[in-house]
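Quick check before the chapter quiz. The format below is the same one you will see on the exam, so make sure you can read both the input and the output lines.
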Amino acid sequence: MDATGRVAPTGDGAGPLPAEAGQVSEKEARQVAEAARESTWDRPSFGKELFLGRFRLDLIDPWPRSDPAEDARAEEFLAELRAYLESEVDGAAIERDASIPDEVFHGLARLGAFGMKIDRSYGGLGLSNLHYCRALMLAGSVSPAISALLSAHQSIGVPQPLKMFGTAEQKRRFLPRLAAGEVSAFLLTEPDVGSDPARLATTAEPTADGTGYRLNGVKLWATNGTVATLLVVMARVPAGAGRRGGITAFVVDGDAEGITVERRNAFVGLRGLENSLTRFHDVFVPKENVIGGEGKGLKIALTTLNTGRLSLPAMCVGAGKWSLNVAREWAAERVQWGRPVGEHEAVAQKLAFIAATTYGMETMLDLCCLLADDDRNDIRIEAALVKLYASEMAWKIGDELIQIRGGRGYETADSLAARGERPVAVEQLLRDLRINRIFEGSTEIMHLLIAREAVDAHLSVAGDIIDPDAGLGRKARAGARAGAFYARWLPTLAVGRGQSPTAYGEFGPLAGHLRHVERACRKLARSTFYAMSRWQGKMERKQAFLGRVVDIGAELFAMSAVCVRAYAEQDSRPENVELADLFCRQARLRVDALFTALWDNTDQVDVAAARRILDGRYAALEGGVVTPPADRPWVARWTPGPSTAEDVRRRIPRPE
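Here is the expected output.
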C-alpha cells in the first residue's frame, strides 16, 4: 500500500482495484496497460521491422496466396449472402426504423453468417479472415448496422476469445449455440472507464463455496448488448491467498438473474445498432466460465483484437468502394460549365484520391488477412495500422464524396427519392463512418499503442536507463545492452538498398516507390532514435510526434503492400499497376509533409495554450452564445445495487 492508502498493482498488473474505485495514478495505469500487452516477438513482423529501419520486403513478397479449395467454398457462401442481402434486406428501412428486423436475424442465421469465424466442427462456416472480412464488407454495403452486428458478435464477442483461449468444454458448450444464430457481445467499457482499464470498477467476487463468482457493476456501450444471449464480461477479481486476481474475462449468460439492460443507446450513425447500458447485480457466474484464467482478461482482449480489428477496416473498404461507384457515375453524368464535373481538375483530384485510397485500404486489409490466415506472422502492428489508416482515410473519402455530390450529398436519401432522384444515402455514409475513428481504439489511442510496439526493441535494451525506478545496477546492465545493440543497429541506418538506382528493378514502374520506402523507413528509424535520445523518459508525452511517426509507418506499409500486390497481379489486372503508382505518388507527398512536421510544428505552443484554455484564461471567447446547460454531470455516476430501471433487452424469437 502506498502513501495514499491505495493498494499498488503487482508487477504483472494483476493487483486489486485501488481502495477508491477510479482513483488510479498515471504510473498504475501504465503498469496495468503494459502488463496486458504481448511482450515477446516469436514470429516475424513486417511492421516491426519497418519501424526499426529494416525494409523486409521478403516478409510480404511474393504476395501471399489463399487455399483455392477454401476460396471456392467461401465464394459459394458469399454468393448466397449477396443474393439474400439484395432480395431480402431493406437497408433504408433499418436506417429509418433504427432496428434490424427479426426476420433478418433469422435469415442471416440460416445462411450461417453468425458462425463465419466458428470452426466447422462446432457448426460454423470456418471462413478465413480474408473471406470473413469480404462478407462484412458486402453486408455493410447494404446496412452498416448488420456488419457491426456480425463483427461485434464474432470479432470481439464470445467466438474469438474462446477460439484462442477457451477450453475444449467451453467451446463445446457455447460455440454451437452461437454458430446457430445466438448473438454475443463484449463488455469492457464502463461509464467512467474507456481506454484506461486500470480503473475498471466491475467486480467478480469469488463465492464462499468456490463454485463461481458474483458480478457487480455497470457496463456502457456494449454493441449487441440489447440482443445478446451470451456475453464476454471483463471484471476485476480481488487478489487473495492463493488467488491471482486481476481483470478477468468471463462468459456470462445474457439471461442470468441480476442482469438488467437499462438503456439502448442511440448514436448519430449506425442507427440499427443494438447498443446497451447493462447493469450486473450479484450475477452468479460458474467458475467454469472463466476464459484463460484469472488476471488474463486484458491480455485476452488485446490479443483478440489483433485479428478482431480487421473487421472494422473491412467496412471502411466497403465504404470506399461504394463511394467510388457513386462518385464515378455522378461525376460522369453531372454537367457544369459545359463539361462533366469529373473533368474539372478540382473534382478530378477528389476522384483520384478516392480511387487510389480505396485500392490502398483494400490491399492493406487483404495483406493483413492473408498474413493472419497463414498464422506464421505476428500482425499486431499491421492490424493496428490498417485499422488506424482505414478509419481515417474512409472518413476523408466520405467527406470528399459529399463535396462531389454538392447539395445532394447533404440531402437525405428519402428527400432525394421524394422528388424522383436516385436515393443515394451519402449523408448517412458519413454519419456511419465517423464512429470508426473511435471504435476499437480511437485514433489517438491507436497512435500510442502502435508507437509503443514500434519502440519495443529500444525499450527492451535501454528502457532501464530512462526508468526513474531503476537502480544503478539495472541502469548499468541496460547501458551495456544498449551499447551492444546500437553499435550493430545504427550503422545499418546510414546506407541501404534504396540508394541504388537499379534496386527493385523487377517491379518495373513501381521500383522507384519501393526505393523511396526503403530510404524513408531508415530515415524514420533515425528520427525515432534521435527523439528518444533527446526526450528520453519524456518521450511518452510527445504524443503528437509519436502520432506522426506512426502515420509515416502506415503510409510506408500501404505503399509496400500496393506495389507487391500490383506486381503479383500485373498480368491478370494490369490496371492495378496504374492504381498502385497513383496511390504511391499521393502517399509520398503525405510522407514528406509528415517528416517535415516531425520537427517543424506548433506542438509546444499548442500544449502551453491548452493549459491556459483549461485554466479558463480565454473563457471570454465563449461569450455571445447560449452554451449547453450545466445542470448535469459530464459522466453519469452509478451506485451499486439492484436496477431501478425497466429492462429493455430485446429477445429475437425463434423462427417458426
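If your answer matched, good. The radius of gyration is 26 Å.
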